[in-house]
Amino acid sequence: MPTYTATEPVARFRARASRMAIRMATRVMLVGAVWGGVHVPAAAAQTAAVAASRVAEPTSYAELWQAAAVAVDEGEFERRDGVRSALFAKATTYARRAVALNPNDPEGHFQLARAVGRTALALGPRERVKYGIEVREHALDALRLKPLHPGALHVMGVWNAEIMRLGGFTRAVAKTFLGGQIFGSASWAEAVRYLEQAVQVEPDRLVHRLDLARIYRDMGRTTDARRTYGAAIAIADSDPNDATYRQQAGDELRRLR
What we know:
globular, 71% helix, 12 helices, mainly alpha
């Protein structure tokens, strides 16, 4: 953390702090590695895949948000940078078109929050912060339309957690220099509240419990973290990437002290 001394010009200190904020803000990819696992409801997953394969270019609202969901899922563990970025960009385009067609349904907003966050990974720090703000906006739009939407609850839980993981100084500098004033609304309490609600709504969704365990761990609630990691490991597969999430849960549980 940079410290200011009386012999350093204020302008130079501010520039130094700004550079640090830009580096640290690369962590504010609020859907980076954790939100990609929030899928469409299991009953709709097959429908989404069928729709994506049947329609060369989706046009209806349902086709668009389902195609966006499939593209994010496909890109989550894609190793080739160019292919992964193209999938996330396509998902963002589809989700934006879905929201434009039907702004009063939560699924389009939820899928846009997912896709925007993933797309942000290929951008610079300032753009990433801007996209992080948009992620929050669309997640809240989804919750306004469906207050117990499990995916949007998950997004908001992780959004709060990722902001808190930045630390107070970095949050303050990001707000000052990168336009992220909304970061001041984040808290660990909100992170827990949203993720616990997601677990209550979808108790058999592995990824909800995995990210809740991570929040407990980072808050120092070790007993709760162990219990929640164990519950995540015990859940049967329901999403395409659950085997990977289960492995992550086991690895993190073994490292927990």
